[in-house]
Amino acid sequence: MRRRMREGQLGSAPAIVALAVIWTVFGIMDPDFLSPRNLSNLGIDIVGAGLVAVGVVFVLLLAEIDLSVASVGALSAALFAALNVRHGVPEAAAVLLALAVGAAVGAVHGFFVARVGVPSFVVTLAGLLGWNGLTLYIFAGQGTILLDENGPVVRLTHSYFHDVAVAYALAALGTLAYFLLSYRTARRRRAAGALPVRGLPEIVLRTLGLAAVSFTAGWTLNQFLGLPLALLIFLVFLVCLDVLLRRTPYGRRIVALGGNIEPARRAGIAVTSVRVSVFMISSTMAAIGGLFLASRVSSASATAGSGNLLIEAIAAAVIGGTSLFGGRGRTWSALLGILVIQSVASGMALLGIPGAVQFMIIGVVLLGAVVIDTLARRTQQAHGWA
């Protein structure tokens, strides 16, 4: 760990430290912050923006940016609400159509960025304006469309697994899977030779740390209503996309493109296809996140795309440890980053601090994350890692 720190390979360590400090400070100032009820609500509040932030991580890995994610999320929720509530389309079909539109939006963005060569900042800024306008057109003067409170979409963020065994089983399964994957990776790296390998004591220590966090979280959630369904779905997305990113050839191509595009092109990677697909992932995750945000408030709003979602999603990815310079980051960065942001929001709400102060704090945290990322990159360059 000391070696990695000296070489600038900080990863998510700053976000973990920031989260520990935030929870300690707010826990001392208001004991209700660490109550099972508040932490359970926090676990649901992070899902919508967190899913959007996961898609942003993929784009940042290419050293690109997607400014349209909030508008795409609002458009997805608007399409779903209009199809289901106004036109009577079954919820399953409406959800699939909304997600398909999200993927199509990403394909359009990717086409202009990867094939035409327009900077992603300009393309997605145009998308932010254009898709927000389309959302307003869909609402046709009606500011809000109420969703069926008994429908599957609304129940996504209002359902819990009341059986205490579910949370503990998930904690045990996650811990066991981490140990087996870490042990398997260490064996393969040792067999390959000339690669740094984690020893068994380090793997066991990391596994015990994960078990402590997982079972403590499970116990806390069980003290309220149990494991939230929305949080479980979020974790499943994180795990699946982490496997896609770190353990498949496709994921390695994304990281390679973010590190340096020209060597990746000469190595035979289909640069255009990969870049288009990454923007499709970003927009699809934004569409999914938009549906979860609509589920949380049981409605779709015409102004959903003009709120804080864009800032929160990008800030979460960066604060969680994803580099703005590309080639460095994980899907778990989105979880850590959105936890930091929502923890600040939750603590300030409990203390009655004005929302304007929240923007100041998040701004300072975001700037600090970018400064750390920049300094870490310089250190990596000095050690030949970047």
Automatic annotation (TrEMBL):
Keywords: Cell inner membrane, Cell membrane, Membrane, Sugar transport, Transmembrane, Transmembrane helix, Transport
Stored CDD domains: TM_PBP1_transp_AraH_like
GO terms assigned for molecular function: transmembrane transporter activity
Pfam families membership: BPD_transp_2 (PF02653)
Chain segments annotated as transmembrane: 12-29, 41-62, 69-86, 92-114, 121-140, 160-183, 203-221, 227-245, 274-294, 306-325, 332-353, 359-376
GO CC terms, sorted: plasma membrane
Subcellular localization(s) per the UniProt record: Cell membrane
Keyword Cell membrane: yes
Domain of life, per lineage: Bacteria
Membrane-topology descriptor: Multi-pass membrane protein
Chief subcellular location: membrane
Record keyword Plastid present: no
InterPro entries the UniProt entry points to: ABC_transp_permease (IPR001851)
Record's function text: Part of the binding-protein-dependent transport system for D-xylose. Probably responsible for the translocation of the substrate across the membrane.
Protein name in the entry: Xylose transport system permease protein XylH
Organism of provenance: Streptomyces xinghaiensis
